[in-house]
């Protein structure tokens, strides 16, 4: 493998670890994927300004809304340019609501009927952009996520403005990778 292929493989590995850590909200597994000065624009619509805030968010959600299965991701694209890279993907995050508070966010109200369900799980469709730097925040040349932006993805059967096609018609859900 050349250097860019090695970098892409490592970025994909870190990305899989990050999403795998969501199952059960494993703080220690998640922590090694991010730089300390990390910035998150969460699916819930709120910003989190450091790894410490992200840890607090994981602990909060353990009490209210827990991903109990790995997310399904598709259309994962990685672009590497020197010591910077970004990754984009679309996916579904299955969560189990464990309290009346649920997500704590009106943007992703887990009790809203608009969300697809599978048994007791709510399926959140999302899209993400993650920014990576070859810097662990301590000066070591190690790939870490420095910024993560996640937002809702339109329903599979909603027509795309300007085109009228749907994600389902475009076949936008495959191939799917499961992040364990």
Main features:
180 residues, alpha+beta, nine-stranded mixed β-sheet, 4 helices, 22% helix, globular
Account of the 3D structure:
The chain is an alpha+beta fold and 180 residues long. Strands 1, 2, 3, 4, 5, 6, 7, 8 and 9 form a nine-stranded mixed β-sheet that branches. The longest helix is centred in the N-terminal third of the chain and has 19 residues. The two termini are 25 Å apart. The mean pLDDT is 90.
Number of strands: 9
- N→C terminal distance: 25 Å
Name the shape in a single word: globular
Give the ordered list of helices and strands.
HHEEHEEEEEEHE
Sheet with the most strands?
Answer: 9 strands, mixed
As a percent range, the share of helical residues equals: 10-25%
- Mean pLDDT reading: 90
How does the helix and strand content classify structurally?
A: alpha+beta
Low-confidence stretches: none
Cα radius of gyration in angstroms:
16 Å
- Per DSSP, the total helix count is 4
Strand content: 35-45%
């Amino acid at each position: 493998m050349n250097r860019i292929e090695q970098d892409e493989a490592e970025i994909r590995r870190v990305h899989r670890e990050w999403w795998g850590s969501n199952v059960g909200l494993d703080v220690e597994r998640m922590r090694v994927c991010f730089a300390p000065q990390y910035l998150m624009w969460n699916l819930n619509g709120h910003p989190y300004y450091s790894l410490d805030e992200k840890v607090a968010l994981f602990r909060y959600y353990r009490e209210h809304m827990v991903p109990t299965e790995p997310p399904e991701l598709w259309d994962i694209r990685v672009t590497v340019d020197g010591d910077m890279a970004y990754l984009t993907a679309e996916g579904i995050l299955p969560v189990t609501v464990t309290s009346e508070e649920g997500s704590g966010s009106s943007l992703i109200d887990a009790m809203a009927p608009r969300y697809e369900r599978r048994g007791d799980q709510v399926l959140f469709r999302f899209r993400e952009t993650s920014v990576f730097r070859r810097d662990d925040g301590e000066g070591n040349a190690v790939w870490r996520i420095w910024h993560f932006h996640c937002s809702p993805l339109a329903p599979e059967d909603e027509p795309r403005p300007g085109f009228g096609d749907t994600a389902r018609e475009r076949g936008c859900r495959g191939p799917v990778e499961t992040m364990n």
